[in-house]
Design goal:
mainly alpha, globular, single chain
Length: 303
Amino acid sequence: MRSYLLLLFCATLYGSNFVLGSLLLQAFPALHLSAYRLMVSSVFLLIYLAATRRLTKITLRDSVYLVPFVLIGMLLHQVSFFTGLRTTDATTASLILSLAPIFTALFARLFLKESFTIRMAAGAIVAFAGVFLVVGHGGSLRIAITPGISIMFVCMLALSGSIILMRKLTERMDALVATVYTTVLGCISVYPVAVWSEPHVQAQPRFWWWVLLIGSALLIQGLCAVIWNGQIRKVGAAKASLFLNLQPFVAMVLGYIILGTPISSTQVAGSFLIICGVVLATLQGKRTRKSHDDKLELSPAER
């Protein structure tokens, strides 16, 4: 339950990232915004890692998953996320990213041999139905396939792939160490792309824009990254990804508070379905818990 509460906390902040990202794009170019936030989170994570004296060397075996994660989970995901938000509204983007649990569960079954139970499938279906109610305005989803939609779809696939790669990476190294190294390497990879694609940027945002950028980077890409990556190893990639279904609900609520977007009764019903779907997929039945506890009570020889 502690792991689920931590994942819920992260999913809530991840959902706010759509609205905050849309706001920050009013003051910063897309790729520079990504690079600046990665710089802030990298400094924070490096200081924290040094303070806890957990710096370790990267081995050649670690790079087998570290390099693909940086390319897919950091470079591709970050670039596609902020590039897609330039032409896609936060609610639509949150819908597309909500497909990630389905693809993550499939990837986890294929590459990690994790179980995909009937309960998890039912929870995913219920939550996915809630996603369509939240963003479909009464259940009728009318979204044209635009370049922004396509880019966000690539972002969703990159997110699903990064969850699987992080699950494998945390089997080889500590979750905090993996988070710090991937964030720093992600910053190193994103910044040259930002300079190359947006070379003549002369943005001079006001002070409060920088406060919002730094605060969101510390919370979402710093603190949440540490918590999320640590819990993936405990609950599994498939179950952890189901919490991403909460993002449209958070984006809807914050859109109402910050942007004044009205909330309909069908969207409230959809949000309820999302929460029910996550609960259905993550809570274990009594028989499952009992058999698991009995197994823990056995000695290694008895097992």
